[in-house]
């Protein structure tokens, strides 16, 4: 059986671990990325079926990623152009929710995340978009 893959992009290791465990218990294979460059690399290598994406990332010496730049980048990638993206953020809902949806996210979840609702949405989304990722 080929498990559906979900890429989690968040700079918080606790969020990555918690979501990975919740997804695994729901039968998904979780892939983690701590920043934008890891997310791009993981998307190219793993071709996830769905992406969970934080908005805010700490500034580093490389590219100053945020979730919106990452959504735009992913949408231009052949490996992810049609991959559903769900934004998960601790940021201001009024500031980010509409912007995330307008950028192409299918949903916005405020942290702390309601894991039951998130898993329900993931199941529904992947049932509606059952496309298999391209073989590496």
Explained architecture:
It is a single chain. This protein has 5 helices and 5 strands. The chain has 136 residues and is an alpha/beta fold. It has one domain (5-128): 3-Layer(aba) Sandwich (Rossmann fold). A 5-stranded parallel β-sheet has the order 2-1-3-4-5, sandwiched between helices. Helix 3 links the parallel strand 3 and strand 4. Helix 2 runs parallel beside helix 3 (67-76). The protein starts with a strand and ends in an 8-residue tail after the last helix.
Basic shape: globular
- Given helix and strand content, the structural type is alpha/beta
Order of helices and strands: EHEHEHEHEH
Number of helices: 5
The CATH first-level class comes to Alpha Beta
By CATH, the topology is Rossmann fold
**N- to C-terminal distance:** 17 Å
Number of distinct beta strands: 5
Oligomer: single chain
| CATH homologous superfamily identity | Response regulator
Unreliable segments of 5+ consecutive residues: none
Which percent bin holds the helix content?
40-55%
The radius of gyration over CA amounts to 14 Å
The domain count comes to 1
Sketch the major β-sheet. Answer: 5 strands, parallel
- Spatial strand order of the main sheet: 2-1-3-4-5
Average pLDDT rating: 90
Proportion in β-strands? 15-25%
CATH architecture descriptor text: 3-Layer(aba) Sandwich
């Amino acid at each position: 059986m080929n498990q559906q893959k979900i890429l989690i992009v968040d700079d918080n290791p606790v969020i990555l671990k918690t979501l990975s465990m919740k997804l695994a218990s729901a039968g998904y294979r979780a892939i983690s990325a701590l920043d934008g460059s890891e997310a791009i690399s993981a998307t190219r290598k793993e071709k996830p079926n769905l992406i969970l994406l934080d908005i805010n990332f700490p500034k580093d010496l490389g590219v100053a990623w945020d979730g919106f730049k990452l959504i735009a980048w992913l949408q231009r990638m052949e490996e992810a152009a049609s991959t559903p993206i769900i934004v998960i953020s601790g940021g201001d809902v009024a500031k980010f929710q509409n912007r995330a949806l307008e950028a192409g996210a299918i949903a916005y979840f405020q942290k702390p995340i309601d894991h039951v609702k998130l898993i329900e949405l993931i199941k529904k989304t992947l049932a509606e978009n059952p496309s298999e990722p391209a073989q590496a």
